[in-house]
Amino acid sequence: MERKVKAVQYGCGKMSVYLMRYLMEKGADLVAAFDMNPAVIGKDIGEIIGDGKTYNVKVSDAKDFDAMLKELKPDVCVVATRSTMADIKESFEICARNGVNAISTCEEAVYPQNSSPAITKELDELAKQNNCTLTGVGYPEMYWGVLISTLASSMQTITKIEGSSNYNVEDYGIALAEGHGAGFSLDKFEKEIGICNDWSSDEIKEKVESGEYVPSYMWNQNGWLCSKFGLTITSQTQKCIPITYDKDLKSDTLGVTVKAGDAIGMRAIVTTTTAEEITLETENIGKIYTPEDYDVNDWTFHGEPDTSIVVNKPATVELTCSNLVSRIPALINATPGYVTTDKFPEGEYLVRPMNEYVK
């Protein structure tokens, strides 16, 4: 592509601080930004980014999103709002109806086929009708997905893959923190989140796909990995275990102090068995961090040879945003539809402006 990639930002919260700057640093022409929060509507995006610059692009009201897409006709829309397909469905629909490629930080969007199949099918058909592509990316796609599949290619045999990732729910907003049970009493946690612990594979599959129960991010990530490897899933279950702290713990995101003994987050453990006799046992540990906590990404391959990798203190927010930006050329180059990144070419570092990577 000879001209710059024309981009718009939908959602001007914490993630957009990096997303908008990274887009422009990689050569995109950021022509509009949208939000529904009255506190940010009308602000120049430089105030959101916080770099002291004026870009002459003001945050528009989300109610004008559809009309402005029709007028602007961008190459890509970056959606950074919430964490489930139900949450981002409307914004993806508007993009697809206007023939605009869309890419989201929504964790479920990385592989929604095994959690929201009806929504994914609907969006896939709409995107194909209008010749555009939709997908989800971020830190999980790279550090729980591409990194793992790349390392697996060096193994002779694999019998089991174990993965564990810690992150601070304070970094990602209220919806994510509450989705991890942060601030819940243990009784409330068990009733609203831990109810899945005794469900069979068939029971949880039915409840997840119907939208009755929202699984953890590793539910989708195991689906991504199995698709990437060509594995046939025979069962998948999840257990959610509350994490507590023995002292009161302040949450700036929730705006409360969580009492000692209440949940500050959870461990969500997803176990996937396959016909090829490779088991995946992965967990995400999301909680309000105590002074001793930090992000860790820890994976072990059992087989020949046993192999482990640990990434200590990854900058998960920044890596989510930079990974998304680097995936934009592949998104634009992809076939129309809802295309998950296990079907994309391997990622690459954008040395040149992103338009030079667009066919």
TrEMBL record:
<dbReference type="GO" id="GO:0008839">
    <property type="term" value="F:4-hydroxy-tetrahydrodipicolinate reductase"/>
</dbReference>
<dbReference type="Pfam" id="PF19328">
    <property type="entry name" value="DAP_DH_C"/>
</dbReference>
<protein>
    <submittedName>
        <fullName>4-hydroxy-tetrahydrodipicolinate reductase</fullName>
        <ecNumber>1.17.1.8</ecNumber>
    </submittedName>
</protein>
<feature type="domain" description="2,4-diaminopentanoate dehydrogenase C-terminal">
    <location>
        <begin position="146"/>
        <end position="351"/>
    </location>
</feature>
<dbReference type="InterPro" id="IPR036291">
    <property type="entry name" value="NAD(P)-bd_dom_sf"/>
</dbReference>
<dbReference type="InterPro" id="IPR045760">
    <property type="entry name" value="DAP_DH_C"/>
</dbReference>
<keyword id="KW-0560">Oxidoreductase</keyword>
